Amino acid sequence: MRYLTSGESHGPQLTVIIEGVPANLEIHAADINEEMFKRQGGYGRGRRMQIEKDSVEIVSGVRNGYTLGSPITLIVTNDDFKHWRKIMGADPISDEDQENMKRVITKPRPGHADLIGGMKYNHRDLRNVLERSSARETAARVAVGAVSKILLKQLDIHFYSRVMEIGGIKDDLAYDLETIKSNIDKNDVRVINDDIAQQMRDKIDDAKKAGDTIGGVVQTIIEGVPIGIGSYVHYDRKLDGRIAQGVVSINAFKGVSFGEGFKAAEKPGSEIQDEILYDTNNGYYRGSNHLGGFEGGMSNGMPIVVNGVMKPIPTLYKPLNSVDINTKESFKASVERSDSCAVPAASVVVENVVAFELAKALLEEFQCNHIEQLKSQIEERRLLNIEY
Ligand SMILES: Cc1cc2nc3c(=O)[nH]c(=O)nc-3n(C[C@H](O)[C@H](O)[C@H](O)COP(=O)(O)O)c2cc1C
């Protein structure tokens, strides 16, 4: 399974082509849209998300609600494009129009791709960089993740995501999985504890008032992953490594960990390795899940626990020093419309990015022309955990 996204933030549409999804999988645009809608929400988001109402149109690979095994193409229309037709359209624009609209960007924003992207691709209008480097692209990645999750659900693999920290306020108690499952999406910051949710909203409001932004930590948990997905044999087939790459490739993500993650550095080995147990109904299992479901780059049958760190959003209302690329004069980087905190939304992005990495690894592991074939092989793998 692989995919390619295309589209600029204020262009006509985002497009994604996904290849390798097995045939005969039931897919409805409405299920993908539910995930798209979640990405748009969350306390602290700016005006763009009120303009766009993201929904996908499926234009290939699905017939009468079922996949054909051919590439699936999804389109997300940018409603805002109508205001940007001249500036962002494919047709040439006259110098006069360009001048009248005064939309050429020569002031790179710190923390964005603007300056280095301009140098690298030889652009003098930094809009050519920011249109593609924008996190708008994550809408397309969520659409891919939603398709992946539909597939994985058929295999009894389920996803849960939440926010664990915003601007230093933490909801990181060691909740059991049942508590997490029954408290998903209960509030607009996506945390379990409602008191902490309010403290986080206050923190976001304070940051906004101060013209500042804040980041945080998010978590994705996957239940039902069969053992042995990934491999210890080659570095580029280790599933934890692939998930890490996927998460850090999301705009503004600066770190990833599994299970207890960085806390493992402080603890003795006896408190970090998960002891191996066996019962006749379920086979091998672990007495704990400190390692977050991975040993040797392979799933070990315990829930996979992925944590991701998001930096504060770089566009601030409180301006930062930068340099105009035409005049070389210093100026204070001013704001385009922006979120003050996108951590809740980003938790949805991480969940979907992880879903794609898992689906991809699973489809490499098994023969998978059609969903029935895949299901029976997954069943066999689950039995292996009992019979081995
Ligand atoms: C869901 C989401 C929403 C974001 N919204 C904004 C935003 O409104 N303004 C902004 O400056 N950056 C936003 N970002 C972050 C930037 O896209 C990102 O920091 C930038 O592309 C530079 O990439 P880097 O931080 O990975 O180096 C958002 C990121 C995510 C995941």
UniProtKB/TrEMBL annotation:
SUPFAM superfamilies: Chorismate synthase, AroC
Cofactor: FMNH2
EC class name: lyase
Chain sites annotated for binding FMN: R132, S133, S134, N251, A252, G296, K311, P312, I313, P314, T315, R337
Keywords (A to Z) from UniProt: Amino-acid biosynthesis, Aromatic amino acid biosynthesis, FAD, Flavoprotein, FMN, Lyase, NADP
One of the protein's GO biological processes: aromatic amino acid family biosynthetic process
EC number: 4.2.3.5
Family annotation (Gene3D superfamilies): Chorismate synthase AroC (3.60.150.10)
CC cofactor note: Reduced FMN (FMNH(2)).
Known pathway: Metabolic intermediate biosynthesis; chorismate biosynthesis; chorismate from D-erythrose 4-phosphate and phosphoenolpyruvate: step 7/7
GO molecular function: chorismate synthase activity; FMN binding
Pfam family of the protein (one): Chorismate_synt
PROSITE patterns membership: CHORISMATE_SYNTHASE_1, CHORISMATE_SYNTHASE_2, CHORISMATE_SYNTHASE_3
Annotated binding of NADP(+), by residue: R39, R45
Thylakoid keyword on record: no
Function description: This reaction introduces a second double bond into the aromatic ring system.
Family statement: Belongs to the chorismate synthase family.
Assembly and oligomerization: Homotetramer.
The protein's name in its UniProt record: Chorismate synthase
GN (gene name): aroC
